[in-house]
Structure formats: C-alpha cells, structure tokens
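debug: dumping io for the single-chain case to check the tokenizer round-trip. Nothing else runs in this session.
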Amino acid sequence: MKKIYMSLATVFLAITVIFAQPAGMGKSDPDGKKVLDAVSAKFKTYKSVQAKFILKIENASGKNLGTKSGSVYMKGSKYRVSVPGQDIYSDGRDVWTYDKSSNEVTINRIDPSANSITPQKLFTNFYDKDFLYKLNGVVKQNGKSMQEVELTPIDKTKAFHKVLLYVTNATINTTKIFEKTGNRYTYSVNSMATNGAIPESTFVFDTKKFPGVEVVDLR
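debug: decoded output
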C-alpha cells in the first residue's frame, strides 16, 4: 500500500517540472491560455485555501483500483496535504513526508532551483513553460457545464502523457492525469474555503505528537 500512497502524493504534489526543453516547442491554443490565466489570476487573490478532494485511480481498462479522500491546506508558500496513510507538510523551507503505516517521517530541505510542482503551482502558472495546452470546449461533468482544457507535457520523458482540467468560474474542479502505463488518476474538489485563518502549526510536523516516530533527516 505504501506505493499507492506515494502515487497519490505524486499526483497532487510532484508532477516534476524540468525546464530542459526549450520554450516554443509546438504551439498552444490562445483560448486555452485564457482559461488557465483566469484560474491563475483568481487563485493568486486567495490568502489561504482549505479544500477536500476525492482521488480515483483506474487502470487502462477503466477498472477502479481505489478511491481515496484527502485534504489540502495552503497559505503563501506553505502547504499540507493529507491522504490515507500519508501526510505531507511544508513550511516553505522544509518538507516532512509522514508514512503512517511505518510511523516514519522523512525531512527534506526545499531546493528553490529544483522547479518541482507544489499545490500552489498546480493552480497558478506551472503550465506556461512546460505544457502545450488547448481548449477542447464545454463538456458536462456531474451535470455541470465545464471548460475542458487539455495539457500535453513538452518533456516526453514524463510518466504521464496527458492532463485534462475541468474548469468552472475560473476554478479547477476536476483534474485527470493519464499515465503512459494506462493508469488514470482523477481528483475532484468536494469543497473549498478561501481566506480563512489557518494556524502556522498546520504546516509543521511535530514529532512530539507521534510517539516513537522514526525520523529520516535528509537536510
């Protein structure tokens, strides 16, 4: 199950961005850019975000491999993501990844030059240098009309080959990630509250609250 937990974290946090590919490879759709720019502009107005989501994992034939619920807290450069079996904390300087099954936490120092995707970047400007994108049009999702934007990574060594974003009112409601293996990851936002007060302690892993925890400090 540990592998599943890491996959969930990867879907939400670590679509690693590699800027080795030159900009301008192929051409993106101006209409798609308008939708994504609106999402980015709206998100940047939030002082904080609290959201709950459901993540569904399917194989290439559409068989459901599992459905997980999770939550995310964001404030400035800080975030916390919780999924069954795993919590990830970041205070903007360090990242704590806690595996509940082994009661082990791994600590890493954030490298500003690493260009990895954080939850904040997932909703802001990650798309502009690393993906080709196009607006597929308006589709129905759960009875609601949404704009479907398709993203294709410029770096073809990525583990995934396509991402679909479903947007209403400049907000991403659902994201589908298609891996080259055929697996599909779909996460849908159930609820989202913005500009609320979030304690600073939310973003720091406190070892005192986890008796016997094994600490792997890689800083």
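debug: round-trip ok. Confidence is low (pLDDT under 50) at residues 1-25.
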